[in-house]
Design a protein that fits this description.
mainly beta, SH3 type barrels, 5-stranded antiparallel β-sheet
Length: 79
């Protein structure tokens, strides 16, 4: 299974870059979420279910995509 690297820089399959700030858990059901910040514009903070962050690109919807996964690690932190 793929893992998310906290403080790693990831490329979204549409080309933008993000840094993972951490992994959070939902207080009611324990679902894991990735907390990440966009590395462009105003640096907005986003959250997405861990499972969705790690999923493959939908090839039926995006047949010309060059990435295999929705988010791919491009730079790991020295942690």
């Amino acid at each position: 299974m793929r893992e998310v690297k906290v403080h790693g820089v990831y490329r979204h399959f549409k080309g933008r870059f993000y840094i993972v700030e951490g992994i959070a858990r939902h207080s009611e059901d324990g679902t894991a979420y990735v907390v990440y910040r966009q590395l462009y514009g105003e640096g907005g903070l986003w959250v997405r279910p861990l499972e969705m962050f790690l999923e493959p690109v939908d090839r039926a919807k995006y047949p010309d995509c060059l990435q295999e996964y929705r988010f791919e690690l491009v730079e790991a932190s020295p942690d």
